[in-house]
Design brief:
Layout lengths: L1 E6 L2 E5 L4 E7 L2 E5 L7 H9 L3 E6 L5 H4 L2 H8 L2 E5 L3 H5 L13 H9 L14 E3 L4 E2 L5 E5 L8 E5 L4 E5 L2 E3 L6 E3 L6 H12 L5 E4 L5 E2 L2 H11 L5
Parallel strand pairs: 4-5, 5-6, 6-7, 11-14
Antiparallel strand pairs: 1-2, 2-3, 3-4, 8-9, 9-10, 10-11, 12-13, 14-15
């Protein structure tokens, strides 16, 4: 796991598949996404270097983002939060619906899946359910933005006070050239593109993606330009 400082308050945690983020308010730390199963001890150590982990906010139920939440919550006592439409899948009560793959996505997904642990994993014992418009007590007031498409309960987190946006997998940075693109492996691509446009209208300065390098400065312009390129992409 690589730990990369983006801002003094904000660090990226990069795994073999996907990434998570630590946000610090004084000695209180919030984790956005929890990495894959098996990552809890490493994440907890990174969080302790900044302060006390208080909460884990999951952008969606996929294993590369939620797989570490159960172990990490048990290890640290941190509260786990996820959108109400993904909550049952996070708890393991139901299987999450699979993506509607485009043909070109299938080999990419198979390659990514091969880098993730097999088998079941620990689930959070307690889960707080979120809805669109909720404001969480970190980052000067982190607003929950419901962005369905990647999953039904995908969320982004917008910190207007600091100009920071966590997009989850609704937006990504291309591993080829770093360009900003819509996320892949989606349940409903048309809904995802609508959600992409909603995020582009939020005017962030820093955009943090579930996959790929963040945009650290001028993210609003980059997101709007990327959204404009996708206006007819249905």
């Amino acid at each position: 796991m690589d730990v990369i400082e983006i801002l003094p308050r904000l660090h990226l945690l990069r795994f073999a598949v996907g990434q998570a983020y630590l946000w610090r308010d004084g000695d209180a730390v919030t984790l956005v996404d929890a990495g894959p199963p098996g990552a809890a001890a490493r994440i907890a150590a990174a969080a302790r270097s900044l302060g006390t982990l208080r909460r884990i906010v999951l952008t969606h139920f996929h294993v590369d983002h939620a797989g570490g939440a159960g172990d990490l919550s048990a290890l640290t006592g941190a509260e786990v939060l996820a959108h109400r439409l993904d909550a049952a899948a996070v708890r393991g009560e139901v299987p999450g619906p699979p993506p509607a793959f485009e043909d070109w996505e299938r080999p990419l997904h198979a390659k990514a899946a091969g880098l993730l642990p097999d088998g079941d994993f620990a689930r959070p014992e307690r889960l707080t359910e979120l809805s669109d418009g909720d404001v969480l007590d970190f980052g000067g007031g982190a607003r929950v933005v419901h962005v369905p498409g990647h999953t039904d309960g995908s969320i982004a987190l917008h910190l207007p006070r600091y100009g920071v946006l966590f997009t989850g997998d609704t937006v990504a940075a291309s591993p080829v050239d770093g360009s900003v693109i819509p996320g892949v492996f989606n349940l409903d691509r048309a809904r995802l593109l609508d959600s992409f446009r909603r995020l582009a209208a939020l005017d962030p300065d820093v955009a943090c993606f579930g996959h790929g390098d963040p945009v650290n400065g001028g993210a609003s312009t980059v997101l709007r330009q990327a959204a404009d390129r996708r206006t007819d992409a249905r």
